[in-house]
Amino acid sequence: MKTRILLIFIALFAFTTNSSFAQGCEDDAPASSTSGVPSTSNMTFFGYIQPMFESHFTDANENTFKFKRARLGVRGRVNRSFSYYVALETSDFVSSDGNVYLLDAFITYDKHEWTKFSMGSFKQPFGLEVTTACHALTTIDRAIVSDQLVAPQRDLGVMMLGGTSKTKFRYSLALMNGRGLGVKDNNTKKDVIGRASYKLFDFLTVGGSFRYGYPNNNDLDRTTYGAEFLVNYKDFALQGEYIYDEGDYNRAADGGCGSTPLELGEKRAGAYVMATYNVNEKLQPVFKYEYFDQDLDIKKVGYQEMMTLGVNYFINAKTRLQVNYQNKIETGLSIDNDALLMQLQVRF
Length: 348
Known about the structure:
The protein is mainly beta.
């Protein structure tokens, strides 16, 4: 079945051109001439693969080769007003059952730069790290708080958005099921999710996100807030986020990109800060500190800290090697649970 889906998908989209969409796993659409969108129809086949090796320094000293992601997609336009985007996840290590599945699939009315509308399956518009294209992540893994609290990271719904990475202000406001991909909503209420960012100075952008919804039924709600900043000064970059979450949550929703969901308390929160420096056009060292508290009401239980030391080496514009050492810090008894991750990425 997997082979059949892949062959059909590749055959359908063998002839392609160019365009891109930030609410999927790619970057922003390129700037246009007058109306904000290209004037003719087009289609582009795209994708990327991320084979990796990971070694966990536990008592059992586990290590394995795997795929972090292996994605194929098509994007394009049908006319001046409507664009489309479809992407499949083919990695056996992301899907819970090891099968190919539909990752993103949405249609966008984008004739006007500040009032675009998307409908279908796409990322929740919450947080800086979650909305960053997966192939552009600075570290191999997203922060624990991003994977655990912005879950499900993808869902079905409708979204209004405006602005691009070229504008000072941009926003997204979505109405979504709140249950995740491929799952029919089990209640009559929907999640409201939004994010806005503003470029205060040439080197500083700040933003915030919120979510309010009913993840399991019509009675128990969930509220989430997030704050973010991004500094880019010459070859130095610094970014950080804080996310607070309370109320009910969907225990069946997977964490981001195959991460294992944790049992959460009534109130939970976490944050990270990450710094990079471009030594030259190929070499970029990175340092990331993060913490996550899965239950704010219970002291020192479910609290995690981690430092990531890494380096990104850009072989060329489409190929990147990433090496990350994850130093996991315990507040109580120290255990052997650090990890070394190495990932090679190719885009096409």
